[in-house]
Amino acid sequence: MSPMKTTDQVYSVKQRHVIDFAFDENVASVFPDMIRRSVPGYDTIISMLGVLSARYVIENSNVYDIGCSLGASLLSIYSQVQVPSVHYIGVDNSSEMLNRCKDAVEKVIPLDQLSLIERSAEDIKFSNSSLTVMNFTLQFMRPEVRLDLVRTIYKGLLPGGVFVLSEKLAQEESDHETMTTLHHQFKSLNGYSDLEISQKRTALENVMLLDKREQHIDRLKSVGFKQVLPWFQCFNFTSFIAVK
Ligand SMILES: C[S@@+](CC[C@H](N)C(=O)[O-])C[C@H]1O[C@@H](n2cnc3c(N)ncnc32)[C@H](O)[C@@H]1O
Q1: Which residues pair with 170 in a beta bridge?
Q2: Cβ(34) to ligand 1 under 6 A?
Q3: Orientation angle between helical segments 72-80 and 42-56, nearest 10 degrees
Q4: 11 closest CA partner among 156, 196, 208
Q5: What's the CA dihedral at 22, 24, 30, 36 to 10 degrees?
Q6: 84 Cβ partners below 8 Å, 6+ apart?
Q7: Atom of ligand 1 nearest to the CA of 134
């Protein structure tokens, strides 16, 4: 594939009417570049998932990646946990993302240990999981389904199992401007123009609805997680470990 095709230019040309963001073919074709240039700390989170999984994934269990996109988390986990009795389950409701995920992941993870499911997270029955990961996906789900989903994930975990939840956070009014400015600066330094940054922000306005840190922690605790640790934060992007 030529570099032109894999560099994110989705919002580089002025649009008369910016439509809502979707994980369609335009986005799927440039997604690795888009997420690295947009989410501070993304590579750290992905590589640390390998470290976390080496600690928490146990034999004869399932590992779920909800909103698996192109399979970055699954590949990181598998690189540290090559236990034949572990089953890897990637879920995504975008066919464009999941088809590319298949191309990348089926080359690496043995097919008898892998299920890639095109479905919405709300319709998944979780079971026997030692590790369930949800990186930057809950924020794209309707707020009214979030509590039930987190409860279903909790119920599907084994005792001592872990849910890793990474999200962009809504900020307190007083911190909003500082965090937004720093994130904008991060994107500028990664080569995005002001036009790209502002058009993408408009496109995400109705589809990416952020919760505050305390809302996440309260929700995780309310379904039964006994320990909730924010283990990573960079600007307004964070990742929690929730232990059953
Ligand atoms: C920002 S991306 C996630 C990035 C990915 N987890 C990673 O670490 O590279 C969000 C993904 O969630 C998927 N998604 C959004 N809503 C979903 C839902 N209700 N059920 C399943 N997947 C969903 C999108 O198609 C997209 O691939």
Answers
A1: 212
A2: no
A3: 40
A4: 196
A5: 30
A6: 110, 113
A7: 6
Question: Is the CB of 64 inside a 6 Å radius of any atom of ligand 1?
Answer: no
For ligand 1, say whether the CB of 93 is within 6 Å of any of its atoms: yes
Provide the b/e sequence for 173-182 (b: ≥16 CB within 10 Å).
eeeeeebeee
What pTM did the predictor assign?
A: 0.94
What single-letter amino acid sits at 52? L
Q: Is the pLDDT of residue 3 over 90?
A: no
DSSP class of 168: E
**What is the share, in percent, of the chain residues with pLDDT greater than 90?**
76
Tens-digit pLDDT profile for residues 159-181: 999 999 999 999 888 888 899 99
Half-sphere exposure of 52 (CA within 13 A, CB side): 28
- Judge if the beta carbon of residue 94 lies within 6 A of ligand 1: yes
Place of tokens 């911190």: 175
**Amino acid symbol at 226:** K
Position 2 scores a pLDDT of 40
b (16+ CB within 10 A) / e for 37-47 = bbbbbbeebbe
* Type of residue at 208: M
Round to whole Å and give the CA distance between 15 and 30: 19
Q: How far apart (Å, rounded) are the C-alpha atoms in residues 162 and 244? A: 6
- Residue 131 to residue 160: CA distance in whole angstroms: 9
- By three-state DSSP, how is residue 240 classified? strand
DSSP 114: E
For residue 23, how far is its CA from the centre of ligand 1 (angstroms)? 8
Q: How many CB atoms lie within 10 A of CB 169?
A: 21
